């Protein structure tokens, strides 16, 4: 009978309902702008583009334009923590597009769902 050798070096003993980051390579953030972004994504130099450009290490993005909620996946080693990222997006204010991003909140994700 042939044996199986573990090649990844990982031996995992964890629990469900917990977000684990193996190697700390990705982080997730929920950005709540509180404004309708549907008309801020159809041209250059608008608010939605400015938000995405302000996120270092952006890997993936999903958004709900009407609610202004943006979910992002970023490289963990190149992105800011939630508070500095929030302040960076808030500083855009009204300088891009026709909305005010000054009340934006950012929280770090504790889970993710793939559908």
Short summary:
By secondary structure, the protein is an alpha+beta fold.
In words, what does this structure look like?
With 115 residues, this protein is α+β, with helices and mostly antiparallel strands. It has one domain: Alpha-Beta Plaits, CATH 3.30.70. It has two helices and four strands. It has helices spanning 47-53, 82-90, and strands at 26-32, 58-64, 69-75, 105-108. It has a four-stranded antiparallel sheet with strand order 2-3-1-4, with helices on one face.
The overall strand count is 4
- Helix segment count? 2
Q: Helicity range of the residues?
A: 10-25%
Shape: globular
CATH topology: Alpha-Beta Plaits
The low-pLDDT segments are none
| CATH C-level category | Alpha Beta
Strand order in space, largest sheet: 2-3-1-4
Number of domains: 1
Please state roughly what percent of the residues sit in beta strands, choosing from under 5%, 5-15%, 15-25%, 25-35%, 35-45% or over 45%.
15-25%
Gyration radius from CA atoms, angstroms: 18 Å
What's the CATH architecture name? 2-Layer Sandwich
Q: What is the typical, i.e. mean, pLDDT?
A: 83
Listing every helix as H and every strand as E from the N terminus to the C terminus, the arrangement reads EHEEHE
């Amino acid at each position: 009978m042939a044996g199986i050798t573990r090649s990844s070096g990982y031996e995992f003993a964890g629990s469900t309902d917990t977000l684990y980051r193996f190697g700390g390579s990705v982080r997730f953030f929920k950005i709540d702008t509180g404004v309708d972004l549907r008309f801020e994504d159809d041209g250059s130099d608008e608010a939605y583009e400015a938000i995405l450009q302000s996120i270092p290490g952006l890997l993936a993005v999903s958004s709900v334009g009407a609610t202004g909620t943006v979910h992002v996946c970023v490289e963990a080693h190149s992105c800011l923590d939630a508070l500095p990222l929030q302040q960076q997006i808030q500083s855009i204010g009204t300088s891009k597009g026709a909305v005010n991003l000054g009340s934006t909140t950012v929280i770090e994700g504790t889970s993710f769902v793939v559908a």
